[in-house]
């Protein structure tokens, strides 16, 4: 399946990357292997360069998507992707430069991003899941999903009903980040039950929090929760939370906006996962 990428200047340097990989059942990511489940990447990332992508394809590495420079000779990569039914996108040299962790390359492979429409399947794999509780403004949701994706999260769950047109707005605002990360709509009750079932640590960011984000372990299987700017996180979610963190503030305006809260938590979670 071939797609032409439509990039925006802000889309995006993937912050997590893989510059090499092992031929063993484990892939390397940030110097760590997820030993408990060799088929699951605890952190998402990329394989950079045509030669490395070819080797990964030949070695049977689990690749979610391949990106190639439309101006370069990548015929063998295209053939292998077609044979293995791996989605392939093409873009300009500048597009790949923006997305690559290693600068100018002819090809990238995205790994550790398991696409699914099943919330149960998503949460069973652990990693970092984002729950934007009660966030209704479509553009804000899109921006938040884009931030989650670029920080290497494994999925996003939402508990708001959206029309087809509203979902299109979310996709546009996210720069179509749902190509790279699952975005699943459900109810608050089902989201919380599923997170508890799969033993995700639920960490909510709210003004009533009793500790800072960096005082909580976000390096394991977690669900990070941020609520709407006006209403905040629902009481049901707060009651189900294992930790409630508060972003430090030292001014007079009552709170940070949604994007700031999401950005602070994503960077802290990313820093902890990278060790």
Could you explain how this protein is built, in words?
32% of the residues lie in helices and 17% in strands. It is an alpha/beta fold. The protein folds into 2 domains: 2-111, 60s Ribosomal Protein L30, Chain: A; 119-274, SPOUT methyltransferase, trefoil knot domain (Alpha/beta knot). The protein has a 6-stranded parallel beta sheet, sandwiched between helices. A 5-stranded mixed beta sheet has the order 1-4-3-5-2. The protein starts with a strand and ends with a helix. The relative contact order is 0.14. Mean pLDDT is 82; it is low at 1-43.
Mean pLDDT over the full residue set: 82
CATH superfamily of the largest domain: SPOUT methyltransferase, trefoil knot domain
Radius of gyration: 19 Å
- N- to C-terminal separation? 36 Å
Stretches where pLDDT is under 50 for at least 5 consecutive residues are: 1-43
Order of strands, main sheet, comes to: 8-7-6-10-9-11
Number of helices: 9
Total domains? 2
Give the tags.
single chain, alpha/beta, 60s Ribosomal Protein L30, Chain: A, 2 domains, six-stranded parallel beta sheet, elongated, 9 helices, Alpha/beta knot, 275 residues, 11 strands, five-stranded mixed beta sheet, disordered N terminus
């Amino acid at each position: 399946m071939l797609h032409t990428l439509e990039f925006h200047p802000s889309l995006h340097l993937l912050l997590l990357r893989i510059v090499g990989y092992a031929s063993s059942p484990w892939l390397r990511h940030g110097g760590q292997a997820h030993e408990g489940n060799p088929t699951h990447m605890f952190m998402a990332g990329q394989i950079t360069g045509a030669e490395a992508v070819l080797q990964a394809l030949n070695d049977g590495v689990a690749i979610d998507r391949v990106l190639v420079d439309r101006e370069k000779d990548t015929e063998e990569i295209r053939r292998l992707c077609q044979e293995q039914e791996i989605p392939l996108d093409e873009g300009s040299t500048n597009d790949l430069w923006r997305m690559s962790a290693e600068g100018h390359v002819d090809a990238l492979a995205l790994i550790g991003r398991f696409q699914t429409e099943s919330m149960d399947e998503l949460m069973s794999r652990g990693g970092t899941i984002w729950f934007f509780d009660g966030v209704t403004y479509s553009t804000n949701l899109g921006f938040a999903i884009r931030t989650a994706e670029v920080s290497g999260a494994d999925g996003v769950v939402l508990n708001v009903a959206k029309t087809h047109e509203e979902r299109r707005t979310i996709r546009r605002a996210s720069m179509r980040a749902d190509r790279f990360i699952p975005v699943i709509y459900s109810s608050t009750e089902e989201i919380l039950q599923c997170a508890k079932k799969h033993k995700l640590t639920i960490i909510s960011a709210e003004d009533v929090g009793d500790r800072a984000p960096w005082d909580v372990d976000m390096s394991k299987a977690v669900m990070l929760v941020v609520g709407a700017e006006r209403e905040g996180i629902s009481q049901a979610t707060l009651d189900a939370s294992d930790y409630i963190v508060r972003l430090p503030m030292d001014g007079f305006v009552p709170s940070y906006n949604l994007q700031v809260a999401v950005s602070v938590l994503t960077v802290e979670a990313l820093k902890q996962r990278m060790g």
